[in-house]
Amino acid sequence: MGFRWLLQAWVPRRAARLCRAVVFDMGGVLLPSPYARARDWEVWNRVPPGTVQRALICGGDDRPWMKYVRGELTAAEFVQAFAQQCFEITNSPVPVDSFLSDLTSKEMSEQLPVMTEAIRCIRAEGLKTAVLSNNFYLHSGASFLPLDRKQFDVIIESCREGICKPDPRIYMLCLERLGVQPNESIFLDDIGQNLKAAAQLGMSTLKVDDPEVAVKELENFLGFPLRGAVPFTRSVRPTMEIPQVPLQKYLENVLGSHTTGSLLVRQFSHGQSNPTYYVEYGDHRLVLRKKPPGKLLPSAHAVEREVLRALAEAGVPVPRVLALCEDSSIIGTPFYLMEYCAGHVYKDPSLPGLEPSQRRAIYTAMNQVLAQIHSVDLKAAGLEDYGKHGNYVQRQVQTWTKQYRATETHTIPAMERLIEWLPLHLPQAHQVTLVHGDFRLDNLIFHPERPQVLAVLDWELSTLGDPISDVAYSCMAHYLPSSFSLLKGLGNCDLTHLGIPTAEEYFRTYCGHMGIPPIEDWNFYMAFSFFRVAAILQGVYKRSLTGQASSATAESGGKQAESMADLAWDFATKEGFRVFKAMPEQNHRGGSLLTCPGVCSLYCCDGSVDTVHPSRLRQGLGLG
């Protein structure tokens, strides 16, 4: 069993593209062109053609428009100054206030769909995005920014910065906040002088006259498609491409020869150890899952397909399997097709943007579906032979100890203690059930409008085993910091304020769903979970020392393994203390254990200290 979110995060990547960021102007690029709108407005208001454009571009840096976008004029002051400028051009009154209202109307505030889709594709490839706009304040005092801010890493508004394009400083400010060099970016604008200034700094540039054409030109520059955006997918990596002609013929046979249209194939970018693709053909939206060459046991896919079918029949929400292809000549290896399940995947366990009651409902639904998985009748589902019965945790401890020893590069004290402690402190046997093996929040697809799990994903690590290992694994994020690079955590979050249950509450809720007594030894399972993660990270650290990763990455990997081992030992200590308190003639005051040569001190919550002989403490900790 392995953790794909760890392995994927540390796989050395091919050299990054030169371009790391795409910077967009707003009006005329992301939004409809203000110049085109000005021409229409002039016709509607019988203003001489070209008046607005002339006023916008003429008069030097102190003209009303430039002062307005630098934040030096309020909306009312701009209307007055701009009206005077237009009067001087036309020698007649111009209703400038209505022009500003028209410029910020609903029609002018809707982002162009072709750009929205392009941004999704760009971000799916790992590139950064930014807005660099000569923007202005409205009569309300707010700036005119009718965009979803989550689409962008950086937003630069001239009225807030006090400088505007084509001043080189505003470009450099944007690049600095993006953390990229000029030659690592491309800038899209509809005004030539703004592009010229960017080019002089070393930025690549693209003039936008027609957004559709501009997106095609940007595609050519970036080297990947900017259409067909699907959440959590990206363009297919060059080393993982699949032949589309034979695939299309196969789909015609499976879906019916009447299916027409172009074939769209994208690759899922999130947490996939096996290549998984989004396939769209005609009206059909599918997921294609294949094994890497040389990795497939003869019956592996057939077993996985039958497991998903058995789970569906048992009422577990899983994607519906449509077909299994065992002919390697089609795309290189056997594969199977599933229906694509549209919904929401929560990557951040803190669930930003939701209300506390909504967050609690999401975690309750997650807990319920895990209990549902563990309640599957193995005999009725035909899964009695899906794995070995009994001693699951013991086998796992042995497996990961061997893995750790095989990749050991230096002594990690906490790992040495765990390797001694875990086998001596195995929990009493729990019920043997189906276990998912990788059950966590971001492996669930939720209904977009209510707290309902539509599908549980990534079943290739499933087997028969101890269900409490799944529960503990799904609580790991509770003890990791939000800044943890491999799996965003909740360790520094106020769970009560957020409405998210604590790990203890999550375990209690699970027991209620399963109708079982409280799990007294849950700290052991947490120690076991973090021990496995530490062993995996140590293996990744060992591989990084071959020179395929930078020394900084290698050092970071080593520190991550040690921190996970320390976390595991913290839980082992808590479990040992629980056992210690339960022993006869023990002091039952809560506290933590610190060891000294010859004695062990029990530091209690009230500040007092009890001294315990170390042999007695070792017995309580399960070390003999």
Automatic annotation (TrEMBL):
<dbReference type="InterPro" id="IPR041726">
    <property type="entry name" value="ACAD10_11_N"/>
</dbReference>
<dbReference type="Pfam" id="PF00702">
    <property type="entry name" value="Hydrolase"/>
</dbReference>
<protein>
    <submittedName>
        <fullName>Acyl-CoA dehydrogenase family member 10</fullName>
    </submittedName>
</protein>
<dbReference type="Pfam" id="PF01636">
    <property type="entry name" value="APH"/>
</dbReference>
<dbReference type="InterPro" id="IPR023198">
    <property type="entry name" value="PGP-like_dom2"/>
</dbReference>
<feature type="signal peptide">
    <location>
        <begin position="1"/>
        <end position="21"/>
    </location>
</feature>
<dbReference type="InterPro" id="IPR006439">
    <property type="entry name" value="HAD-SF_hydro_IA"/>
</dbReference>
<feature type="domain" description="Aminoglycoside phosphotransferase">
    <location>
        <begin position="265"/>
        <end position="481"/>
    </location>
</feature>
<dbReference type="InterPro" id="IPR023214">
    <property type="entry name" value="HAD_sf"/>
</dbReference>
<dbReference type="InterPro" id="IPR036412">
    <property type="entry name" value="HAD-like_sf"/>
</dbReference>
<keyword id="KW-0732">Signal</keyword>
<dbReference type="InterPro" id="IPR011009">
    <property type="entry name" value="Kinase-like_dom_sf"/>
</dbReference>
<dbReference type="InterPro" id="IPR002575">
    <property type="entry name" value="Aminoglycoside_PTrfase"/>
</dbReference>
<keyword id="KW-0007">Acetylation</keyword>
<dbReference type="InterPro" id="IPR052898">
    <property type="entry name" value="ACAD10-like"/>
</dbReference>
<dbReference type="InterPro" id="IPR011945">
    <property type="entry name" value="HAD-SF_ppase_IA/epoxid_hydro_N"/>
</dbReference>
